[in-house]
Amino acid sequence: MAEREPRVPQHPTGDAGFAVYVHWPFCLAKCPYCDFNSHVRHSPPDQARYIAAFRREIAHRAALAPGRTVSSIFFGGGTPSLMEGRTVGAILDAIGEHWAVDPKCEVSLEANPTSVEAGRFQDFRAAGVNRVSLGVQALNDADLKALGRMHSTQEALDAVAIARRYFERYSFDLIYARSAGQTPELWRAELELAISHAAEHLSLYQLTIEPDTMFERLYRAGKLSIPDHEAGAALYEITQEITAKHGLPVYEISNHARPGAECRHNLVYWRYGEYAGVGPGAHGRLVTEAGRMAQSTEKAPELWLERVEAEGQALIEDELLNAEAQGDEYLLMGLRLVEGIDPAKFATLAGRTLKTSRVNSLVDQGLLTYKLGGKLAATPDGALVLDAVVADLAA
Asked: pLDDT tens for residues 346-356?
């Protein structure tokens, strides 16, 4: 009797795409504001050993979610630009062995703009990376030092120029509201400088004090001062004004792009598609025959490596999401987008419709608006208090 093809579950998220997230957890130093799963090691990791482990974990995820076509791949961290080009290439080969890969697949890699890492861009391009995202964070040497960055403004701009040479698509990050001394005039000038070097995309984040970071300890000790809510909102409004003026309008709360140049990988998250997460501390959302699963892996790199070598995977969370949880996640992710959410998709995921009275109240308050096609989106005012808007809708 012929073996049957594995059944691909029918689900309402396939239109958003299928992505693979690869986490490389190693950094040269831990930034004081960072709460990501990143680790500093005195000796470099055995990349051949990690390649073998990534191959095994990719095979495990493909067995859970067969028959997909990969629309985007993202190497995040940590600092993926510390990887060797051959490591990146081997991981991409493994993904291609287990899933179909769209010929137009976006393959992004995060990089720090130190001169040594920028010199690897040619190797990454040869391996198959077609988009880089640079962690610039500031274009001011004093602030870069305060943020714990290991590059200067000039090194950052040099790295952007090298990225432009090897990649048609590149982006870089800046943090604003990073100190009480950052005035609207200073941020306006810095943003204008950034846009003059940007091609199609910028990620612009307002500094938040994350738990268990050095910045949290400094903030609680009164040794770090950041703009208050009103001052932060003013910087946010300046951000929207200047980026729109230069043709890079906001498409997600912290991301700006020329039309058509949005980060396709992150759109999979925000549109509530599927994504496989591999590597230490990676998160994923896969739709299996059991339903939509929330997954995460062992965070500690050495423990992750040992578990994958012993068991073929290192999941520490593999939880079935019920309808209410899926609806809540869709609201939380989708309302970050300027395009908004589809109320019909929410109803399919959550098993209920949005409460008309709550929607109408938020519309009347100027926090939500209806868009063409019936989508529901946060207004600029709503984006400033998005957590409250989502909580109101989810209740």
From this structure: 999 999 999 99
